[in-house]
Structure prediction request, 614 residues.
Amino acid sequence: MQPETAAARAGCAERQPAPARAASALILGAMRPLPPPFDRMIAGQAISVGETGSDLLGRRLFTKDLAFSPKERLELGLRGLLPDRVLTIEDQVVLEVERIRRKTDDLERYIGLAALQDRNATLFYRVLAENLEEFLPIVYTPTVGRACQEFSHIFRRTRGVWITPDDQDQVGTLLRAAPFSDVRLIVVTDNERILGLGDQGAGGMAIPIGKLALYTAVSGIHPAVTLPVSLDVGTDNAALRDDLLYVGYAAPRLRGPRYDALVEAFVEGVEATWPGCLIQWEDFKGPNALRILDRYRDRVPSFNDDIQGTAVVVLAASLAGLRQVGRRWPDERIVIAGAGAAGIGIARLLRLAMAQAGVPAATIASSIVLVDSQGLVHDGRVDLGEPKRAVSLPAAIAADLGLIQDGPAEASLEAVAAAIRPTILVGATGVAGMFTEAVIGSLADDVRPIVLPLSNPTSLSEALPADVLRWTDGRALVATGSPFAPVPLPGETREVAQANNVFVFPGLGLGAIVAEARAVTDGMLLAAARTVAAAVSDARLAAGALLPPIGDLRAIARDVAIAVAEEARRAGVAGLGPERDLEVEVDTATWWPAYVPYTRARGHGPDRRRAAGG
Ligand code: NAD
Prediction:
């Protein structure tokens, strides 16, 4: 039995029919409270528990391990089951951090943290929240990539919901088997484009798990309202299928109409089980990612972090850079190398930002130029799918720029950069070294250009910050997808901020949930970008960093959530009543992982505990 269902058995997390919950929220105009006892736990209030003894110690969301007080130990049948010493959660954090640091390998650290999450969730989230800078690269990129690759062999305790092609007709039933009754945030992947590692089959599940851990640690969304989901539609990774111990659906990847039908069944299942639940699409491959996002974004509250979260972080870095150098959108010329999920998402949002700044549509169309593996993306090409065509350069303008060549080959990035002289250059290709000295040499030389080589991991970055700074005599403002050390320059040290989506998605998700948003609108994305940009201090900008420090994440997530919820309400997509104070609502929905006092629920005596198998 899952620990959380045991909590429900103890009268802690009762299932209510969804319509009843929705109705009560409508009447009050407030975000509906978390299901009990999480409503009290999130408010730091004492709860009564029915579980006792080793049952209680085994409940990951309820145990305190050695932090149970002497009174609780006596009352809850814990005496004799714990060593004498009573620790505080602060003591426990010190001990856990010490344990994780003692391990010599990052994958072992990942496994250690996962074990802690399984054993004592409150402590896990507290450790993570207090040590984000140190453990973010373990719980998420880059170490989570290794966890995905070795998933079948390090898999211990199951988490989330797994849906395979055989489940087409019972997706709703599978979702209802989830351990929580009132899920408000799902991170779902089909595992096909896991980080830069491609198809990882069942191992992709480590990504939704990791993302949700960050949601809780950064924005305080309580884990009892979150659910990781794997659409385990098979894998085309032959090495995985050949592994006799592979834990996933060992068949070639489902494609075509049956794939679409399974995604549709998933969305219908979520709508029916948890109306209004926010769905975050995660690590779907380019064409599926764009198609699914566009198909469902007006139907259910949903967003794709690889497309939209990336775009928000790029827009935020650009806004901060423009502020630093005193430039405005009408003056910008932007080249985006890579026209996949990330590149197209970035182009879409930058176009919107320019439009909002009053730049005429015709100017926008010629100011944001994409290059893919075939070369310049222009609308004279016959090989473009609809999403790419929508952000392509008009062929007539390409011709005016001398970028339509004789023969089948399209203009290269070098040729495009030389013709456009970009003020902003973004890399989302996954190709190391794409930003050659010639490309960087073509950047506008009368301004400080913004250069964003986003590709992960570090080895695939389109350029090294030190090279970009050397080739531009220190003029460039650089942020990267992977972490890089500060770059020493004559007389100064230049910070290189990481364009990490973690600045965006926790607050975006929290804001959408608090507002009970019916959709994640473009306006909400723009609001998130403006908020992240505003969080970059002038001192940081002066040192060259285009994004805030990781240490500020929790404060930034709060501000982003408030801005996003405000925008949802302004745009008329919020369920939250206009009379509610959004700051209060966001703070009320934010959990700081800490223990609350327990008392024993009446009617749960020791005999009953034994009868229940404790
Ligand atoms: P994708 O596979 O959907 O797109 C890759 C694009 O690059 C395609 O358009 C392809 O044609 C193009 N490309 C490949 N080789 C090229 C070349 N030689 N010249 C020009 N274009 C070329 O992948 P994606 O999801 O869009 O991600 C792209 C990269 O962006 C990845 O490396 C990923 O790590 C990175 N990324 C970073 C962040 C971040 O830092 N916050 C977020 C998302 C993606």
User: Anything to note?
Assistant: Residues 157-300 form a domain with the Rossmann fold fold (CATH 3.40.50.10380). The longest strand covers residues 226-231. The longest helix spans residues 305-325. The two ends are 13 Å apart (CA to CA).
